[in-house]
Design goal:
The structure holds two protein chains of two kinds. Chain A is mainly α. Helix content of chain A is 84%, strand content 0%. Chain A has eight helices and no strands. The chains are: A mainly alpha, B alpha/beta. Chains A and B meet through helix 1 and helix 4 of A and helix 2 and helix 3 of B.
Chain lengths: 224, 228
């Protein structure tokens, strides 16, 4: 119960900071809109082609956009050396990590909510498969992105080129998740195959990486 | 000296960064309830020493015992550390910053000694009229006072203050000194680094001068400050 209260205290603080600065949301929104609009002009796809490529474009746009939010996540803890205060606090380090994951999850979900109608309009989309499965794929995929992203952003925190380092570490590790996200989305949109296997793979990926990141975060936070 | 009256014991503590030794075999015992003012040029090892005592960095060699313990997690609960940065969020108000910190401490150990309320801690450092202002709009002196209030809120037994008066106006440093004087009278142990010895002299029991990673000299103003 105390753990949940601590996570909530961290989360409230992060949401308040973002509400006042809007650093992460503005960056993500601008970037993802740019990708969606530019790709729609570049390919001028028909409805059939759209279904084949939309999954890839959606997740690549979200992956790149979320990197901007993930970099912000820890940067604001570095200002004024607040991170030292976090390390000195007696609360569990994993609660801080979990709250950051939840905050980033909310930010990316907000971008998805804005992006979804635009995506449908620009790519003239209509799911042939079971469209409701997107309600599973989107949160599972988002969780995969933000868990690893938040963890690796913390890992690269003390390096000089952390903005460059994060994608270099994050993208290779995210390849299995990205594959599952894109394939399951494409399967749902085209209805040509069963997305079940990919969704199970994505769930497994989430379970493994959430557990690992929670267990290892304290070591990362206290690393010199 | 009995260990009960010893706040800090450093046994040949060194900290090495590549070829550079920030601390070189520092050995000292510092008594509880005293105020130690650490002086020295930039790069003398003052901040490194405080960060080791706070458990924020590990020594490369040697043993550190703080308040009778070598367990970093246990030590951190009993000490307050203030760096020369304010360690508070600019976008949050003073009250929100302290309220957030208070929740982290209270949730971690509900059975612990009751802390100062955020309003009380801010009142203590003379920021009662600026509770609802974002810290980012504070002057440097006000930010340092807000930071001190955050540290004091948990009623730490040992205070580690890294250059608390740097870039701070006279009014703020006077207020901080007044608060530190009160804590000293209550028997708290204070370690404070500064480049302004004349400012810290009224609350000092001992001036420790550091040079090239070692304690070069100790000047006592009260008995039983330390046994090296």
């Amino acid at each position: 119960m105390n753990y949940a209260r601590t996570v909530w205290a961290h989360l409230q603080k992060d949401l308040r900071l973002e509400w006042r600065s809007k650093d992460a949301l503005n960056g993500m929104l601008f970037f993802s809109l740019l990708v969606v609009v530019l790709f729609s002009f570049a390919f001028d796809p028909t409805m059939a082609v759209s279904r084949q490529i939309a999954g890839g474009i959606l997740w690549v746009a979200l992956l790149f956009a979320s990197v901007t939010a993930l970099n912000q996540t820890w940067t604001r803890e570095l200002r004024n050396r607040v991170l030292d205060a976090q390390r000195m606090a007696p609360s569990p380090a994993s609660a801080l990590f979990l709250s950051k994951v939840l905050a980033n999850f909310l930010f990316v979900t907000m971008i998805q909510v804005v992006l979804a109608p635009l995506f449908i309009i620009f790519y003239n989309l209509r799911a042939i498969g079971q469209g409701w499965l997107m309600l599973l794929v989107l949160p599972l995929g988002t969780l995969a992105l933000v868990v690893n992203g938040t963890f690796f952003a913390a890992l690269s925190l003390r390096t000089r080129n952390r903005e460059m380092l994060l994608p270099l570490i994050l993208f290779p590790v995210s390849v299995p998740a990205l594959l599952a996200m894109v394939q399951s989305t494409t399967a749902i949109l085209t209805g040509e195959s069963d997305p079940g296997l990919w969704i199970r793979m994505l769930s497994g990926y989430d379970i493994i990486f959430v557990t690992l990141c929670l267990l290892l975060f304290e070591t990362v936070l206290d690393a010199e | 000296m009995p260990s009960a009256t010893r706040a800090i014991h450093l046994n040949e503590v060194s900290k090495v960064y590549g070829d550079f030794a920030a601390l070189r075999k520092v050995t000292a015992e510092l008594s509880a309830g005293k105020t130690f003012v650490i002086l020295g040029q930039n790069g003398a090892g003052k901040s490194t020493l405080l960060r080791i005592l706070a458990g924020l960095i590990r020594p490369s060699f040697g043993k550190v015992t703080v308040l009778g313990s070598q367990d970093v997690a246990a030590i951190r609960r009993r000490i307050g550390y203030l760096s020369h940065d304010s360690m508070v969020y600019d976008e949050l108000t003073a009250l929100e910053n302290l309220g957030y910190a208070a929740r982290l401490y209270a949730d971690a150990d509900p059975s612990a000694e009751p802390m100062w309320k955020p309003e009380e801690a801010l009142d203590l450092v003379g920021l009662d009229a600026a509770l609802d202002r974002p810290v980012g709009k504070f002057s440097q002196g006000m930010r340092q006072r807000a930071a001190l209030a955050r540290v004091l809120m948990s009623k730490p037994e040992l205070l580690l203050l890294d250059e608390p008066f740097s870039n701070v106006d006279f009014a703020s440093s006077s207020k901080m000194l007044q608060v530190l004087g009160k804590l000293r009278a209550e028997g708290k142990t204070i370690l404070l680094t500064t480049h302004q010895p004349e400012l810290a002299r009224p609350i000092a029991d001992c001036f420790c001068t550091m040079h090239e990673g070692q304690i070069a000299a100790m000047e006592f103003f009260s008995p039983e400050g330390s046994a090296a």
